[in-house]
Design goal:
- The protein is mainly α and about 120 residues long.
- The chain is built from 6 helices and no strands.
- Helix 1 crosses helix 2 and helix 5 packs across helix 6.
- The longest helix has 18 residues.
- The radius of gyration is 14 Å and the shape is globular.
Length: about 120
């Protein structure tokens, strides 16, 4: 496999992703689980997440961005329930101007861990 150029993934980039995710999940048809309102096997929450993640990381090449965002989605779904993910989303909506890296680590360590794991796996690819 061709080695992908090393891209700069920072821990703080997770904050950018989260802020954009909050925007992507905020709509009048807010889902209550990952599979709700499925189209072609992807629920509304999954589609919103991937769209938002891709928008937040548009500085990366498309193939890297798609791999990273897919990894994040899979990792989050494995790490926590949808209701735990919604707590993160709700927190971001309420405190978007106050989000810090340490705040994410303290309140949502699972998200920081998933982000770091995905960033690490993409860099190593």
């Amino acid at each position: 496999m061709k080695k992908i150029q090393r891209f700069r993934f920072t821990r703080f980039s997770s904050i950018l992703v989260v802020l954009v995710l909050a925007t992507g999940c905020a709509n009048s048809a807010t889902p209550n689980d990952w599979e709700e309102q499925a189209v072609n096997g992807e629920g509304l929450a999954e589609r919103n997440f991937l769209d938002s993640c891709n928008a937040a990381n548009e500085d990366l090449p498309e193939i890297v961005r798609e791999e990273f965002c897919g990894c994040l989605l899979d990792g989050i779904k494995q790490a926590v329930t949808f209701s735990e993910f919604k707590k993160l989303d709700d927190h971001i909506k309420k405190h978007s101007n106050e989000i810090t890296e340490s705040g994410l680590e303290d309140g949502f360590p699972w998200f920081v861990e998933v982000n770091e794991n995905c960033a690490g796996s993409i860099v190593q690819s």
